Amino acid sequence: MRYEGQIYRPFSEANSYLLQCTVGCSHNGCTFCGMYKDRRFRVRSTDEILEDIRMAGNHYGDVEKVFLCDGDAVCMETETLLAILKALYDTFASLRHVGTYVGPQSTLEKSMADLARLRGAGLTKAYLGVESGDDAVLTDINKGVTAAQMLEAGRRLVEAGFNLSSMVLLGIAGTGEPARRHAALTADITNRMKPRYLAALTYTPVPHTALFKKVESGKFVLPDPFETLEEMKVMFENITIDNLTFVGAHASNYLPVSGKLQKDKAAMLQTVNAVLTSRNMNALRPDAMRGL
Ligand code: SF4
Question: What SUPFAM superfamilies is this protein classified in (predicted)?
Fold first, then answer.
């Protein structure tokens, strides 16, 4: 298989065939993210992508899951994406899942009709980097959209029938009252967006990024591990929608809490509260074992 640059994927796509459709991220401006800072964004040629699919068919025979890389494949022309989806389903008889990261701006640029056509053609799962429901945080991290625009992007994906995974960042608002507001507003945007999955990651400074420089200079104060758990607790307490799978097992998190809201809410809160009460560092994942 042919890839350009470091390839990233959500951890739930570990068993997927990774098909690179774009190189980099169309936005590439978030201050905390270093994933694609070393490359200029471009869409790969359709011929190259279709050739990759033929090569993968010869190599793998059949696959059940595909993930479209890199950072925001939904920014591609709808007709091109439809041709790619058709080639994938024609090639792999058992294919049942095609996922992609979706940028909020790119999603908003697609009409509802186009989103529905993509869903109908088998683009099944969308991973939206919501990061926060707080406008102040989204501005600080240069996400490129307001909370209202982020909500609209997510709602459109849900309405089009996508299995939506919202990804949010613990610790991205720093400490104190901004952190509490971030957690409460992130719960609020989740309630209104109604994704099927909520994946929480903990902000970890990445060298050579703008936010890393603010951490180094003292302009951004990192929360301690327990403060990130306080944020998780506020989210659990304030999320009211049902059948939401909370995925907290990511390697960046100090405490891997996962479960179904509302069914597991009491147990999830009990787990977090026990560590917040004991302040036992041994109950947390050591920094050396954390990573993005
Ligand atoms: S966080 Fe996502 S949208 Fe932001 S620069 Fe990184 S890949 Fe692009």
Answer: Radical SAM enzymes (SSF102114)
State if residue 129 touches ligand 1 by the CB under 6 angstroms criterion. yes
Cα separation values, 59 from 54, 111, 180, Å: 9, 36, 49
Cα 89 to averaged position of ligand 1 atoms, centre (Å): 28
Whether the pTM exceeds 0.90: the reply is yes
Residue 157's CB is within 10 A of a number of other CB atoms, namely 27
One digit per residue, the tens of pLDDT, for the chain of length 292 reads 789 999 999 989 999 999 999 999 999 999 999 999 888 999 999 999 999 999 999 999 999 999 999 999 999 999 999 999 999 999 999 999 999 999 999 999 999 999 999 999 999 999 999 999 999 999 999 999 999 999 999 999 999 999 999 999 999 999 999 999 999 999 999 999 999 999 999 999 999 999 999 999 999 999 999 999 999 999 999 999 999 999 999 999 999 999 999 999 999 999 999 999 999 999 998 887 887 6
Report domain extents, the chain: 1-123, 129-149+167-287
Q: How far apart are the CA of 71 and the centre of ligand 1, in A?
A: 6
The answer to whether domain 1-123 has CATH 3.30.750.210 is yes
Does 10 contact ligand 1 (Cβ within 6 A)?
Answer: no
